[in-house]
Amino acid sequence: MNTNSKRIVCLNLQALPAYLPIVTQTVASSAGVFGLGKADCLSLELAVEEIFQYLCNSACPGNELKIECLDGIYYTQATFRFSASGMNLRGLNIAPSVTFNYEGECDLSEMGLLLASRSVDHLHVTIEKGNLVSLSVVKEKTYPRISDDLPLPETSGEIRLETPDPERLKQFCLLVGNHYSEQERPSFFDHPGKVVDMVAGGDYQCLVAMNPRKAVVGGILYFSRTEKIVQCYGPYFFQTDQGTDTGAALLDACLSRIARGRALGLLSISGLPHGLEANFEPLGDLNHYRDDVTPIKRSLFYRHLHEDPGGEVWSHAGLLEYLERAYERLVLARDIRIIRDMSETRAGYSLFAADVNRERSEVTLRPLLPGADFSANVERHIRFLSEERFRNLFFELDLGVPWHAELIPVIIARGFKPEIVLPFAGQSDLVVFQYHDAAES
Fold it and tell me: Could you give the CA distance from residue 40 to residue 353 in angstroms, rounded to a whole number?
């Protein structure tokens, strides 16, 4: 199914408490029609209730509000859009400033987004053109975990590459689950029905390699991470011999498809077969922490699809040496501009977007608005998200936005370490910082 054919239910009203039953019923009914199960519908409804009450009481009381409920095939997304003109957006931080009453109890009205995030899989906040705030929550469908053992396919004969039908796509997922470790594949491969819907919804594309008997011997899954970056999983192959040749053929076919678009690079975040690593630039490693289990190391790789156009980036002096090494290794031409503090006045409250992924116990923070409270806001987010038992905290800074560089010394001082430079992943390149608790060091 093409993404343009996804179903959307829209609701336009004012942010008034009296409309709460209409909002929750509309979202719950839409999610049910879209195929979300009862328990998942209830979780999404609870998140929507928290968000709507927060908007009515704090963020945009009485203002015009547009609510969209999107059928993403394997998920349902509820999005709230409203004008931010003349508003204090401080409370849209997932970890806002919390007040206490005389008994020392927390004012939960200040915790709308944090409470909402507990019952959904993803939560996003962005500021769109025209100072329009977009706040989205996503609840994914619950799919059965399948781990059927499939025999390795025969390796003899010429392979053929094609877009798989649903049954061969499920076969591909089962083989990946059988023969690749957790650090080499995303968890959704354990749910083949989910992957079928991910491809059917148009968000992902897949190529498989088949032998003369039409058995799947390899495959690659990919999607557009941004307009400039395509991300892939694989190529995976299941042959005892000729596997590297199959992987190379899949990779070449994938590159041929995406090179026709506007993407500047191909990104892999789950490692590559050893025989294909030479075709990519290693970006570095990220650790995925789990409760009382050895962390999983994720190796990231990048491949240029077009000639590097060069450009300027902004940094703090404390990151200069790191960036110089990274750009030299990646052979990227960048003019690094260093910001300077000249005692100019900073006012207002900062706002961080939080991409919350409950399944992976992961939160990625991104700065949306500058302010005079960077240090306090970073500390607040670390405290709240740690209390919520998120084990993997990341901070992404866009080197194409000068004021983002002001955060560099702040987040480094609070335990974030620069790990990865992602070329062209924002207005310019992104630097990904990972939080390391002192207890882990």
Answer: 24
